[in-house]
Specification:
Layout lengths: L3 H7 L9 E5 L6 H8 L4 E6 L13 E5 L10 E5 L4 H13 L6 E7 L7 H4 L4 E10 L2 E9 L12 E7 L2 E7 L11 H9 L7 E5 L5 H9 L4 E6 L2 H14 L4 E4 L10 E6 L4 E2 L2 E2 L2 H10 L3 E12 L4 H9 L3 E5 L3 E7 L1
Parallel strand pairs: 1-2, 1-4, 2-3, 4-5, 10-11, 10-13, 11-12, 13-16
Antiparallel strand pairs: 5-7, 6-7, 8-9, 14-15, 16-18, 17-18
């Protein structure tokens, strides 16, 4: 089913006419299929940094790109689904200008509560012409043209580096806009790292690694352990790669849609699991993760996670593992342990 933003685009389909189209922050809602039907001769590229947003849609004129930065091609039209994080939006706008020409048209669409109206101010000095095309379904659609070309775009220039000390261990973390806990250490992750103790781990999975803080901390304490750091976001893995390089850590990076897609077993799975999708809370992600985690643990392997204390993870852990322990509960976050 089309998202509200995509519905607004379809009702203004005359603005979608172009020979080559790039969909930025493309989601799997059927819009690409409808666009290819509307413009069967157009070349359409769907870009996302989030693996779960990929589509199974196939068409001779449709290409899908999952990466941290936009494909280095030129497009007549760029359609930008505005993200909820303003810093990420600015980074992507700069990336869009890096692949644009003076004739490129830009359509920006998004939910009003997600901050899409900020794009007018963000492009005030970087677009010669702008107009509001439509406002419907709690969304707004804007068109820009005469973009100022930005040939010097470098993803690393948007990185934010900061120093932390967790349980007596100094770490240098590197994050990027749009990556969980950008620019600071999440309090739940901090409690997790201060609490857990591992027993001679040989293999470990850091699920939903974000900027790689869990992998980096554990690699410094368990140097012989083989660590796999997975995330659904190519942007997060780019940040983790920068963090690993800064700390001299070796870990395997894996773009993965859930733990079930990782074909390996581990002595430990350690995670601060995600529970947000877009602007809403989604408990299904972690419920599914717990259900799959036991299958990816070696015999007597251990699952260690941190969760907001109000979230109903105890029942899921009991259903899958039969028993579990609370290693720490400070009323805001709870550290859970479950043995396979």
């Amino acid at each position: 089913m089309l998202s509200a933003a995509s519905q607004v685009l379809i009702r203004n389909q005359e603005y979608l006419e172009a020979e080559s189209v790039l969909l930025v922050n493309h989601v799997n809602d059927g819009f690409a299929e409808q666009l290819c039907d509307l413009s069967p001769n157009a070349s359409v590229t769907g870009f996302t940094s989030i693996l779960t947003n990929r589509t199974q849609f196939q068409h001779d004129n449709f290409e899908q790109v999952i990466a941290a930065t936009l494909p280095k091609k030129q497009f007549d039209l760029v359609v930008f689904y505005y993200p909820k994080a303003k810093a990420e939006a600015q980074m992507l706008l700069d990336n869009i200008r890096a692949i644009s020409t003076e004739s490129t048209r830009l359509l920006v669409v998004g939910e009003n509560k997600g901050g899409v109206k900020s794009v007018v101010k963000q492009l005030k000095t970087d677009a010669q012409f702008s107009r509001k095309v439509d406002s419907a379904r709690h969304c707004s659609l804007f068109q820009f043209s005469g973009l100022t070309v930005n040939p010097d775009f470098q993803l690393a220039s948007y990185a934010k580096q900061f120093e932390i000390n967790v349980a007596g261990t100094p770490l240098s973390l590197v994050t990027l806009p749009g990556v969980f806990s950008h620019g600071e250490l999440d309090k739940g992750t901090e409690l997790l790292l201060e609490t857990i103790k591992l027993n001679n781990p040989k293999t470990l999975l850091d699920f939903a690694t974000g900027c790689g803080v869990i992998s980096t901390f554990l690699a410094k304490h368990y140097a012989e352990c083989k660590i796999v750091a997975s995330d659904v976001s190519a942007l997060a893995l780019a940040a983790a790669e920068l963090t690993f390089a800064e700390n001299g850590v070796n870990a395997e990076l894996k773009l993965a849609d859930g733990i079930s897609s990782i074909d390996a077993k581990f002595d430990y799975i350690v995670s601060n699991p995600p529970f947000h999708t877009g602007l809403s809370t989604n408990y299904d992600i972690t419920q599914l993760f717990i259900a799959d985690a036991k299958k990816r643990l070696n015999k007597r392997g251990e699952l260690l996670i941190v969760a907001n204390s109000f979230l109903p993870y105890a029942d899921a852990l009991r259903d899958e593992f039969g028993d579990f322990s609370k290693l720490k509960d400070n009323k805001k976050f709870t550290i859970y342990s479950a043995i396979a």
